[in-house]
């Protein structure tokens, strides 16, 4: 199978070109199914996956080779799901997946981590990943037919030039957040959490992931994230049980929810009502519905990532919050709205944190030196990660907004 993110890209760059290049007597093309069938019995399916939920169009399909062109346009969620399609009952075939990509895009972070930085998470086998660098000069056919192409790349802005001409993956054109691992990730909270204002920011998800982030604000306006819960396939009642347990262990001033958590659908209680009924709270509604809520939220995020007067960022994250530290630096700007995040990315934790920043507003006062303390007395809780999504009718839930409506049946 050959994949592009959208069908127009697939048609213009591949289907048309294959039909031009190959002799007509060696294949037949099914225009409805987008499948080339060759005289030796092999076939090439041409697929697209514009929305995350489109991965479910390929449930149960088996391919011995999968090629993903412009892989940085794909999310890690999509890549992981297509990996499950790489299987065969034949022993004589070597299963392979090929990814071609430039730096940048919504998938830049996970591609760089797997293939360039070689930083692997649990369940990822380092032997499965090999990076084969290639630059424009290696494309001899292009150099012969379009020798001026290099000069066109040389006229790009510096970051884009380094990315597209030099193949520099340390340049992230389009990265939305000014995130620095050495500045924003810490191995312990340097302030007594019990002396902080503590809140939970929440972003609902059922088929897509839901996120709860636990933030502590010091008197001098430093904010530390000390815990996360990141999971899918959990009902509001199940979420309420988990959050109540956490609140009983360490109280919070508020659980901040976006506007969609206050909406009833098909006669069911809203998520906010379910939380209140099960002892989760106090509940506070964030301004996530107004016209400028998303752009204001991003602007606030930039402020909190900046340094306070003491030289330390206002916002820092404990290193055990692995999904937060993974997803925030991978977010990119929306191609159509440069003042907002691309919602095709894995932005669930970002949205949960954004709810808190919207509720708290701009950093106030001058940040003083944080007061050091000894080791945290209680054991850190492990990150909660949800399981796989089984087959169900979720395509309609994943359109552009990735199933943010809260109905789950």
Automatic annotation (TrEMBL):
<dbReference type="Pfam" id="PF03237">
    <property type="entry name" value="Terminase_6N"/>
</dbReference>
<dbReference type="InterPro" id="IPR027417">
    <property type="entry name" value="P-loop_NTPase"/>
</dbReference>
<protein>
    <submittedName>
        <fullName>Uncharacterized protein</fullName>
    </submittedName>
</protein>
